[in-house]
């Protein structure tokens, strides 16, 4: 792997980044080719590669042998000979045959977009769960690379058992070993999935709604999360700075309590191996009561990034009717006129809230919006119980949000907020004692 090589040499590995741009995209493209190239450069920089050259390679029609045409392959071969990069990053998904042919033509290691993102995830994963998910994605990707075109894997091993025979080829053995490891990791991740399900059940017993922050990588989710929760999640100006999900409690302006969840960032053409591997983690998004879609309002491709995020959410199976708040972040980087317009609500998205996670501007408005969404249609009521009635007090705390508590002699006066479906349960348990609040 590139990372291992870099660590051995204790210096930055030189890289040549190439974005493959199909000419057929033309005016239909939602993203500019140069912007896609810069994103690919950002991915390379995220694992500390030294980008010595970057260029766009237009392609009229992808060729089966090398993705890009022979003329462009020869042109890049001349560039690699002059620059001598240790790796060429091709911002496209290459088949194993295409990767091998390009490595032969350019005389250097070649990584496609999927491999590069896997490298980043491999370096960022900090927890055991994160490392398992990354390893699963790596192995799934590697298994797809084991094809007959790799002649050095065609040698055979001896037979097994009583039948003897030619045995299995090296490629078959490698595929079998990878398959066995994948099965083991999936089994371990199923345990993670069950643990998360139990955690969600426990949270449901204590009625705290969950708000999941999602968004394009580097949109500022972790900075916003830290600002709202006083946490210390890694927040850097790097793609995929955060992989491992974090959850913290937050008290909203009128007293409601919620759990805020920070999730892995999305990206255009997110490898299917990663979506599958991180499904256990991303189930927190599926279970969330409200989704906060954090967007980089300053980024020139903000609308295209929004499309990419919504596409991933759709692939995950997030219901279309799930409450979602668009959070337009980084407004501190906008010109005054544009910033003031967003803060005043002049935006095409009706549910958008303009904020700066860095300066704190707009966060009070965002918290109020969170509270409005999680308490929608909830009922506020007053209730007085005997101070010695521990069983009923415990039941109330399990089934309601306690807004205020006051001791009055041998009784306790409570201000509560409950969901409409719980009203009958409260009326049955405390007949004639409930006072509805305005």
Characterization of this structure:
This protein has 15 helices and 14 strands. It has 438 residues and is α/β, with parallel strands linked by helices. Strands 6-7-5-8-9-10 form a 6-stranded mixed β-sheet, sandwiched between helices. The relative contact order is 0.08. The N terminus is likely disordered. 43% of the residues lie in helices and 20% in strands. It is elongated. α2 runs parallel beside α5, α6 packs antiparallel against α7 and α7 packs parallel to α10. The chain folds into 4 domains: 120 residues, Rossmann fold (3-Layer(aba) Sandwich), CATH 3.40.50.11060; 66 residues, no CATH class; 167 residues, Rossmann fold; 58 residues, Alpha-Beta Plaits.
Summarize, please.
The chain has helices at residues 2-9, 33-46, 70-83, 96-106, 113-124, 128-145, 170-205, 221-229, 272-277, 279-287, 302-316, 336-343, 363-374, 390-399, 423-429, and strands at 14-22, 50-59, 87-91, 109-112, 210-215, 246-251, 257-262, 290-296, 324-329, 352-354, 379-386, 401-408, 411-418, 435-436. With 438 residues, the chain is of the alpha/beta class. The strands form 3 sheets. Strands 6-7-5-8-9-10 form a 6-stranded mixed beta sheet, with helices on both faces. It has a 4-stranded parallel beta sheet with strand order 2-1-3-4, with helices on both faces.
């Amino acid at each position: 792997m590139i990372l291992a090589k870099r660590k051995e040499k204790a210096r930055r590995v030189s890289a040549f980044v190439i974005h493959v741009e199909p000419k057929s995209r033309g005016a239909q493209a939602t993203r500019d080719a140069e912007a896609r190239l810069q994103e690919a450069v950002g991915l390379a920089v995220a694992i500390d590669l030294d980008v010595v050259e970057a260029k766009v390679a237009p392609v009229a029609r992808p060729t089966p042998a090398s993705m890009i045409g022979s003329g462009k392959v020869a042109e890049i071969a001349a560039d690699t000979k002059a620059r001598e990069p240790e790796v060429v990053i091709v911002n496209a998904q290459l088949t194993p045959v295409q990767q091998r042919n390009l490595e032969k033509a350019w005389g250097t290691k070649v990584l496609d977009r999927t491999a590069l993102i896997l490298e980043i995830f491999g370096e960022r994963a900090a927890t055991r769960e994160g490392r398992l998910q990354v390893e699963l994605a790596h192995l799934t990707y590697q298994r797809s690379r084991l094809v007959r075109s790799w002649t050095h894997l065609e040698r055979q091993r001896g037979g097994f058992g009583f039948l003897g025979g030619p045995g299995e080829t090296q490629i078959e053995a490698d595929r079998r070993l990878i398959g066995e490891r994948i099965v083991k990791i999936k089994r371990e991740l199923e345990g993670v999935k069950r643990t998360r399900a139990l955690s969600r059940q426990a949270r449901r017993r204590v009625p705290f709604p969950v708000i999941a922050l999602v968004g394009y990588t580097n949109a500022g989710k972790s900075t916003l999360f830290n600002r709202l929760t006083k946490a210390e999640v890694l927040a850097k100006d790097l793609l995929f700075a955060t992989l491992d999900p974090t959850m913290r409690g937050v008290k909203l302006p009128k007293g409601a309590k919620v759990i805020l969840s920070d999730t892995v960032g999305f990206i255009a053409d997110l490898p299917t191996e990663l979506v599958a591997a991180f499904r256990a983690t991303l189930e927190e998004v599926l279970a969330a009561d409200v989704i906060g879609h954090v967007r980089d309002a300053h980024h020139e491709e903000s609308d295209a990034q929004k499309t990419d995020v919504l596409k991933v959410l759709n692939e995950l199976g997030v219901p279309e009717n799930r409450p979602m708040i668009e959070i337009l972040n980084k407004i501190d980087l906008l010109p005054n006129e544009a910033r003031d317009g967003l803060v005043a609500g002049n935006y095409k998205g009706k549910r958008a809230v303009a904020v700066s996670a860095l300066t704190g501007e707009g966060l009070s408005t965002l918290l109020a919006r969170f509270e409005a969404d999680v308490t929608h249609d909830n009922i506020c009521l007053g209730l007085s119980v005997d101070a010695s009635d521990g069983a009923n007090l415990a039941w109330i705390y399990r089934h309601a949000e306690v807004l205020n508590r006051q001791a009055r002699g041998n009784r306790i006066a409570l201000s509560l907020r409950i969901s409409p479906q719980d009203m009958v349960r409260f009326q049955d348990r405390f007949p004639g004692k409930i006072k509805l609040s305005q």
